[in-house]
Design goal:
heterodimer, A: 220 residues, alpha+beta, Jelly Rolls, 23% strand, B: mainly alpha, Arc Repressor Mutant, subunit A, 0% strand, globular
Chain lengths: 220, 211
């Protein structure tokens, strides 16, 4: 199924530049794994990087650096260069977590050890991650989350289930790429729990006293 | 200049074959020139072609990494590593998909994130994304590289309004996040993002895809 909600251009540019904070980059990669359209836009962003890299003002390489490079080639085994692997498709396994999440959360959706943080809400936080927060959330079907906005940037990708908010319907593979301007109140779809991965580079801001009591849910 | 650059002599007969041949004198090598050098590296393991690539790109990659704040000795190592990757994986280079400049940019950027920012598993994840694209190359949504006019992209970058040009450079050449840029320039985060969006739309427009 092709995603309907995509990465913001500014997010893609930052990803291409290697400038996206780690937590956001992990979630962006999770979407990219499922979205050929965003991978194509990423290639355009990389082309900009290629041109900027080529425009760097330079001196000619030094003789000793050239000699060192040639010595490295001498040390290489005299084999043919790596060719295109024959079979590239991985079989679709609904239990397999996206590759970008595996270093943080393991391989299997079923094997996740959820922690209840509020009625109908379970969470797993990634270990220490520089300059942000990365977490998996599992929200019971038909739940209404508190109205909140974002102090900085927030990226969320749906892994299973779905939710609706003022921006539309978000299903598996869809990314919600939000910044401080957006205030939203997601409502999860009936049927199965909504499992998503979310990253922020700044604390969330909840409105109202109910929301404030739920603030610990997100751990800030 | 200690090394005479063979590019001009090599490129002339190739350019003659083109329908619209730009003047061959003082022309800088273009994407197709580099594809031919890569073909020679891949098929014949040709060191002369490899060193032409090295002479052009190694100093540029080195400057790119130094600008990102990488110490000189580590930058030298990463440049060697990037070029060694090119030597080993020349067979994976697909000129229809990306120019050599784009390809080497990706390699150097990935090495920077892996070894300087030390993000776990960045390299295998990016390689996984590349493999997905190879598997789906029959239904690509980006314009094929052969249709992309590198000069038009360069001109579009030069024509960006001053603020957009500054933000794009801070992003790519200083690897600053949106929040860092906003703090440094005392701009609202939303303005940083909308300026970058406008810049990307213009640059994408110059790449010929009707998107």
């Amino acid at each position: 199924m092709k995603p309907n909600h995509h990465l913001d251009d500014a997010t893609l540019l930052s990803y291409s530049a290697g400038a996206l904070p780690t937590a956001l980059a992990v979630v962006a990669a999770t979407h990219l794994e499922r979205c050929a359209a965003c991978r194509a836009r990423l290639l355009d962003a990389d082309r900009i990087g290629g041109v900027l890299m080529q425009q760097q003002r330079i001196d000619a390489p030094a003789d000793d650096a050239r000699a060192a490079m040639l010595a490295l080639l001498d040390a290489e085994p005299a084999t043919a260069p790596a060719a295109m692997p024959a079979d590239l498709m991985e079989e679709a396994d609904p239990d397999r977590l996206p590759a970008a999440l595996q270093p943080w959360f393991g391989h299997s959706l079923r094997a996740l050890r959820w922690k209840r943080v509020a009625p109908g809400v379970q969470r797993i936080r990634a270990g220490s991650i520089a300059g942000g927060e990365l977490m998996l959330l599992r929200i019971a079907p038909g739940s209404k989350l508190p109205l909140h906005s974002h102090g900085g940037n927030e990226l969320t990708v749906i892994l299973d289930g779905a939710y609706d908010d003022m921006l539309g319907h978000f299903g598996p593979g869809d990314v919600a790429d939000l910044d401080g301007q957006t205030q939203h109140q997601p409502v999860t779809s009936p049927g199965v729990p909504c499992i998503c991965v979310a990253a922020t580079d700044a604390p969330l801001k909840f409105s109202g006293w109910v929301a404030r009591t739920l603030q610990p849910l997100f751990g800030f | 200049m200690m090394v005479p650059h063979p590019a001009v002599a090599e490129v002339a007969p190739f350019r003659a074959k083109r329908v619209v041949a730009p003047p061959a004198s003082n022309a800088t090598p273009d994407a197709q020139y580099w594809s031919m050098q890569m073909a020679a590296v891949s098929a014949q393991r040709d060191r002369a072609s490899f060193m032409r690539i090295y002479d052009h790109f190694a100093p540029r990659l080195q400057r790119y990494l130094r600008n990102l704040g990488v110490a000189e000795s580590l930058a030298d190592e990463l440049v060697q590593e990037a070029l060694l990757t090119l030597w080993r994986k020349a067979g994976l280079f697909d000129p229809a998909r990306a120019s050599l400049a784009t390809w080497l940019y990706r390699v150097a950027r990935n090495l920077y994130i892996d070894q300087v920012r030390r993000e776990p598993h960045w390299l295998p994840i990016q390689e996984g994304l590349d493999r997905l694209d190879l598997a789906e190359s029959d239904r690509r949504d980006s314009a094929p590289e052969s249709l992309i006019d590198q000069d038009a992209l360069k001109q579009a970058i030069d024509r960006l309004p001053a603020v957009q040009a500054k933000l794009v450079r801070m992003c790519y050449l200083e690897s600053k996040s949106h929040s860092e840029i906003a703090r440094e320039l005392d701009m609202p985060l939303g303005s940083v993002k909308s300026s970058l969006r406008r810049a990307f739309a213009k640059l994408q427009g110059s790449m010929g895809g009707a998107r």
